[in-house]
Amino acid sequence: MQKEVTIYDIAKELNISIATVSRALKDAPSVKPATKKKIVAFANQKGYRSNYFASSLRKTKTHTIGVIMHELNSHFMVSVLAGIENVLSKTVYDIIIAHSAESAKMELANTNNLFHKRVDGILASLAYETQDLSHFEQYYKKNIPVVFFDRVEEKSKWRNITINNKQAGFDATQHLIDQGCKNIAHITGFLTRNVYQKRFEGYKQAIKKNGLLFKESLVFVNDLQKDACLDVAMKISKMKPRPDGIFITNDISAAIVMQALKDLKIKIPKDIAIVGFNNDIVCTLVEPKLTTINYPGITMGEVAARSLLNSLSENENNTKINQISSTIESKLIIRESSIKKI
User: Fold this and answer.
1) Which of 28, 117, 169, 171 is deepest in the core (most CB within 10 A)?
2) How many Å apart are CA 157 and CA 159, to the nearest integer?
3) Angle between helices 18-25 and 33-45 (to 10 degrees)
4) Residue 200: which of 213, 190, 210, 209 has the closest Cα?
C-alpha cells in the first residue's frame, strides 16, 4: 500500500517551510503565486490528500450529519433524502446515511457508530421495533442536536418533523364515506409507531363521527409486506358482508391489495373503493389509478435539515436548544380507485 503523502513530505522535498506549504494548500494570499503554484503542482503529482477529518477533530467539528433511515426502498424516504440534500448541499456539511431496516438492534448500532464518528448532528426516522430513545441520550449529554422525522416519539424532548397523521387518516376515511362506503376496512402497520397509530385514530374518528359502527374485525395490523397484504386481500374477499371500502396506510401495500382483489374478480372501485397513503409513484402506474394522501417527502427533508441547522447554530451561539417541532401539510389526492359517485 502506497504511503500517504503529508505536508511534511512536500516541505522536505521542496525545501520549503511546513507553514508555507500548509498556507499554500489552503490558498492563503500571503504565499507568493509562483511558490503556491509550485507547491500545489507537486502535491497533485504526489497524490496528496488533505486530512480533513483530523483537522476537523482539532476544531471539535467534523461537518458531518448522520441520517438514520428505517428503509431505503421507498419513494417517500428517497424523497426525504433528496430534501435533506437540497438544504445541506448548500452548507459545509456532508451526510453519512445509515439504514436500520426496521430493526431496533441495527438502529442502536447505527446510533453508536455515528456517535463515535463524531457527527455534528443526527436526522433520524425510527424503526418499527424501536421501543424507546435511550440510545440517543449520549447525543443529548454531549449537546449534539437530534431531529426526528416521520417516525417519531411525540412525547419526547427532541425536535420532531411530522404531518398531522390523525387528520390525514380522517380525511382518507371521510372520503370513502362520502363515496357511499359504510363498511370500511383499515390495513395498517404496527401501531407502536406514531404514523400508524395516528392514522388509525383518524380512521376511527371518521367512522364514529359519521354514525357508523367501528368493528375491530375490519382492522388488519401487519408489517405491510407483500405476503401479509396478499393474506389480508384473501380474507377481505371472503368476508360477509364484504367491505365496500379500504383505507391502507401505504401505497405499495394498497397496490398489492388492489391487484389481488382484481385477480379475485372484485371490481375496484365498484365493489371496493381503495385509498392509499404517501402519493408514491406507483399510484399513477396501477389501474385504476390510486387515490392517496400526498405526503411531501422533499418538504419534510428540507424542514428537518433546516431544523437541525438551527439547532447547530444555537449550539455555536451558546443558546439553549428548545424543542421546536413542525407539522408538514398533507393533502388528499382523489383518483379513480375510490370514486363510486360520479
Assistant:
1) 169
2) 7
3) 90
4) 190
C-alpha triplet 251, 254, 260: angle, nearest 5°: 145
- In this structure, the strands spanning 331-333 and 292-294 are antiparallel
Whole-number pLDDT of residue 60: 67
Which run of H or of E encompasses 322? none
What one-character DSSP code corresponds to residue 51? -
How far is Cα 85 from Cα 126, in angstroms, rounded to an integer?
19
Say how far apart CA 129 and CA 70 lie, in whole Å.
10
Question: Do the Cβ atoms of 183 and 244 come closer than 8 Å?
Answer: yes
Instruction: Tell me the sheet residues that pair with 186.
Output: 219, 247
Contacts with 199 (C-beta within 8 Å, 6 or more apart), sequence order: 165, 166, 168, 169, 172, 188, 249, 277
For residue 204, give Cα distances in angstroms to 198, 212, 226, 256, 332: 10, 10, 25, 24, 17
Q: Answer yes or no: is pLDDT of 83 > 60.
A: yes
Q: What is the DSSP string of 266-318?
A: --TTTT-EEE-SB--GGGGTSSSPPBEEE--HHHHHHHHHHHHHHHHHHHHTT
Please count the other Cβ atoms lying within 10 Å of the Cβ belonging to residue 289.
16
Quick: pLDDT tens for 209-252: 999 999 999 999 999 999 999 999 999 999 999 999 999 999 99
Interatomic CA distance for residues 287 and 266, integer angstroms: 13
Question: pLDDT tens digits for 270-321?
Answer: 999 999 999 999 999 999 999 999 999 999 999 999 999 999 987 666 555 5
The radius of gyration of the chain's CA atoms, rounded to the nearest angstrom, is: 26
C-alpha to C-alpha distance for 307 and 161, rounded to whole angstroms: 9
Q: Where does the chain have alpha helices with state H?
A: 7-14, 18-25, 33-45, 52-58, 75-88, 104-116, 137-141, 165-178, 194-209, 226-238, 251-263, 297-316
Q: What is the pTM of this model?
A: 0.81
Domains along the sequence of the chain with CATH: 7-50 (1.10.260.40), 61-163+297-328 (3.40.50.2300), 165-295+332-338 (3.40.50.2300)
* pLDDT tens figures, 91-123: 999 999 999 999 999 999 999 999 988 899 999
